[in-house]
Sequence to fold (205 residues):
Amino acid sequence: MALNEFEQKMYNRISSAVGGSQRVVTYYNSEENGDKKLDILVAEDSPTQNLATVATLGAVNNFPKYEAPNGENLRVEFFSITYQKYVWDFSRMLTGIALMARNDESTPYSLGSMITNVIEKFFPDCNSDMKHIVFALPPDCWGEEKLDIRKIDDNNILTWLWAGPISHKEKIYLEKEGTAGLGKLLPDIMNNGLDIFDVNRNSLI
Fold:
């Protein structure tokens, strides 16, 4: 694992927050010439046994900049929480999302934005209602630790966005209700006995 300065800051913060049994996996464009695509942190048994946290380390390097209210550059990393049997599927998906973010500056990757029809691309055997990904604030599931906004140098601040699977009907609801709807939908999913971390869950709507 050879992390640059930014990636090491990402790693230090998220690794201390999520715990679990951790390793960093590097995805390459070509292993022969060492052309690195992206580093992914995999933390098994995080936040609980049988779950895993999967997070990008370095989407921030070339990620399109957003301006925070104080004028600083707001940069984004992505993570998901999933069952351990889906760790590598989610790792590939987050790598794909990060590359799309790097290559398409016109597409917003911010709170409440969605990527459509991504589940079937990376989970071809998934027959559930889940079709899309929505970006939401990190859930409070690691005890006192939180993935909050963090200043990483004089000009840049960092935030994490959770990439959570949603159904097509849930997508339509969020398109109508916006981020306010996101704040209602996710708790409603959990309060109705649905597992929000399960890519095979049923749709709430």
User: Anything to note?
Assistant: The beta strands are 21-30, 35-44, 51-57, 66-67, 73-83, 114-115, 130-136, 150-151, 156-167. The first strand starts at residue 21 and ends at 30. The mean pLDDT is 84.
